[in-house]
Specification:
- It is a single chain.
- The chain is mainly beta and 147 residues long.
- Strand 5 and strand 6 form a beta hairpin.
């Protein structure tokens, strides 16, 4: 009976232990999306705690005449060794329409042995001011350098 208890205790602790992939202090790279601009945003992430980070994205649109900036706060959960998934929310500004918008994010990322991070994410955006046109969808692939 004692051995069975120890086996179940070991399994329980294994299931609920966190095999955390360390979140990098900083990452910088490109976030490729299907927008009407260059199709890429400059992306920077800053670690806030072991399981949270802040992300800033800047995109130049319409032959560099318009700017879109987004800031997101994210929570990160470990899936498996080098896989994480994350979710968060934030806001941004798009100069083309002088619009403030709210944004959410849901994604999955893979940390390579080299200091490279690759992620696939979905970011819905809702205009909060002028030129409201419903829900904007933004799917992207991001490649970032971790340091």
């Amino acid at each position: 009976m004692r051995k069975i208890f120890l086996v179940f205790l070991g399994l329980f602790l294994t299931l609920f232990s966190v095999n955390a992939q360390e979140v990098s202090d900083h990452t910088i790279g490109l976030r490729f999306n299907q927008s009407t601009g260059l199709g890429a945003e400059i992306s920077y992430q800053k670690k806030m705690s072991a399981k949270n980070r802040f992300e800033v994205n800047v995109e130049l649109k319409n032959k560099f005449s318009d700017l879109k900036g987004t800031g997101l706060y994210q929570w990160i959960w470990n899936l498996e060794d080098q896989f994480n998934w994350y979710a968060g929310f934030g806001a941004g500004y798009e100069s083309e329409y002088s619009t403030l918008f709210g944004a959410g994010v849901l994604g999955i990322e893979y940390h390579f042995k080299a200091p490279i991070l690759i992620s696939v994410e979905y970011r819905p955006e809702v205009a909060l001011t002028r030129n409201y046109n419903g829900l904007g969808r933004n799917f992207a692939l991001a490649v970032r350098y971790q340091f």
